[in-house]
C-alpha cells in the first residue's frame, strides 16, 4: 500500500514538471528566437519479487519486478531553427543555421542569444531588447564611424558596411558562435544563454545572417496542447489512485478500531 502511494506521488511530481515545461513553452510561443523545452523521465529503483516469502510462479519466463515510480531528470532544449519572418527593419537579424549572437552584459559578462530584434542606442552601439551590447568586431577603417538605425547594411556572412557619402565602408563583422554538444548551453533568463563550464565555443562560419528578418519561436502549439492533455490525464489518474489508497487506509483503520 505504501509503495502504491509513493508511486502515485512520484508520478504526479513528474507530470507537474512536464506541465511546467509545457506552460513555459506556450507562454513563449511568440517570443523571438525562443527554443522550446521538454523534460526527460526516468524510472526509480526496481526490485525483483522472486525471493523467499513471495508467492511467485517459478516457471514464469518473465521475471516479476516491482518499481518505485518515475521522476523527471534534466530539461532538454529543442535547438531546431524556427521559421524566419521578414520585417524589412535594418536592425532585425536572424541566424540561418546553428549558432548564437554574442552580447556583453553589465559587468562585462558575456552571453549568447538567438533573438535578433536589435536596435541602435544613442552611443551608436547595436544592442538587444534588454540593452546588452551586441558584439561587432570593429574594422580599423570603421573607427570614428557611428551606427544609426538606417545607415548600415549587413551581408550574409556578417560583414557590416556603413554608408560614407556615396560609398559603403567596412565597419566591422558580426560573428556567429556555436558550441559542441546540444545541451551545452544554460539558460540564464531573458532569452540569454551561457556555456556550461568546459564547453568549447567556436566561430561558426557555415551559418548565415539575414538582415531584415527575425527568427520565430520553434514552439509547436499542436504538440504542446496534445502533451498537455496527456500530462493532465496522467496526473488525474495518479491523483485518483492516491485518493483510493487514502480511502483504503481509512477503511483499514475503521476496522481496527472495532
Element layout with pairings:
Layout: H1 2-27, E1 37-43, E2 46-48, E3 65-67, E4 70-77, E5 84-86, E6 93-96, E7 101-104, E8 110-113, E9 119-120, E10 126-127, E11 133-134, E12 137-138, E13 152-154, E14 159-164, E15 167-173, E16 177-179, E17 185-189, E18 192-195, E19 201-203, E20 208-211, E21 213-215, H2 221-256
Antiparallel strand pairs: 1-4, 2-3, 5-21, 6-20, 7-8, 7-11, 9-10, 12-15, 13-14, 14-15, 16-19, 17-18
Helix pairs in contact: 1-2
Quick summary of this structure?
The chain is of the alpha+beta class and 258 residues long. It has 2 helices and 21 strands. It has 2 domains: 2-79 and 219-256, no CATH class; 84-215, no CATH class.
* Gyration radius, in Å: 27 Å
What global shape is seen? elongated
Individual helix count: 2
The description of the largest β-sheet is:
4 strands, antiparallel
- Derived from helix and strand composition plus strand pairing, the structural class reads alpha+beta
Order of helices and strands: HEEEEEEEEEEEEEEEEEEEEEH
Give the termini separation: 21 Å
Q: Uncertain segments of ≥5 residues (pLDDT<50)?
A: none
**Would you tell me the overall average pLDDT?**
84
Strand order of the largest sheet: 12-15-14-13
Q: Helix proportion of residues, in percent?
A: 10-25%
Strand-residue proportion: 25-35%
Number of strands: 21
Instruction: Work out the count of structural domains.
Output: 2
